[in-house]
Amino acid sequence: MISRDEALDLLRSDDLIGIGMAADAVRRRLHPEGVVSYIIDRNINYTNFCTEYCSFCAFYRPLGHAEGYILSKEVIFDKIQETIDLGGTGILMQGGLHPDLKIDWYEDLLRSIKQRFEIHCHCFSAPEITNIAEVSGLTIRDTIARLRDAGLDSIPGGGAEILDDAVRHRIS
Fold first, then answer.
1. Where in the sequence is the domain holding 33, given as residue range(s)?
2. Which H helix or E strand runs over 70?
3. Mean of the per-residue pLDDT values of the chain
4. Which of 80, 110, 154, 165 pairs with 122 at a CA distance of 20 to 30 A?
């Protein structure tokens, strides 16, 4: 691994090549066999309706906005099929914090995807899961359990900063 001081130097650096070389050196130490892998996946934004209104987000639209959408299952299925046709093995599906989409909508979507496709479903940020729990009257634990039972394979790590009230108020 690298030291704390080395990590701080990299954090402060604008030397992209140097940062990449440091990352590769750590990878080589951790995995000396020389095997590097990647996945082909696709980002699918199932809705852009959102109640959070983060100032940094150019994506969201308030409910009722003419540019807002919720993708139909058929459109989502077409995007998944395109991904598979290009060799993809996973989807990253995320959207806004929709006040009307309850757990049953997400369960139905995941089950429908898993019935039709053999694909890894990496879906719903921490704020989305919190929102789903709140609008459905469920605990976060129960929400995650139900989504997993419906076909959720993993959860993306981004977006959790919005769960901290102080951070959310500063960036929203």
1. 1-37
2. none
3. 91
4. 165
pLDDT at res. 161: 56
Q: Strands (DSSP E) along the chain, which ranges?
A: 41-45, 90-94, 120-123
CB-based contacts of 133, cutoff 8 Å, min separation 6: 103, 139, 140, 142, 143
User: Between these two residues, 37 and 164, which has the higher pLDDT value?
Assistant: 37
User: Are 59 and 48 spatial neighbours (Cβ–Cβ below 8 Å)?
Assistant: yes
Question: 21 and 60: one domain?
Answer: no
Structure tokens at 14: 């604008």
Strand-pair partners of 91: 42, 121
159: closest CA among 62, 103, 94, 91? 94
Q: Look at the chain and report how many structural domains it folds into.
A: 2
First-to-last C-alpha distance (Å) of the chain: 36
Q: In this predicted model, what pLDDT tens digit does every residue of 39-83 receive, in sequence order?
A: 899 999 999 999 988 887 888 999 999 999 999 999 999 999 999
Taking a C-beta distance cutoff of 8 angstroms, is the pair 94, 81 a contact?
A: no
Task: Please tell me whether residues 118 and 165 are part of one structural domain.
Answer: yes
Give percent above pLDDT 70 in the chain.
Answer: 91
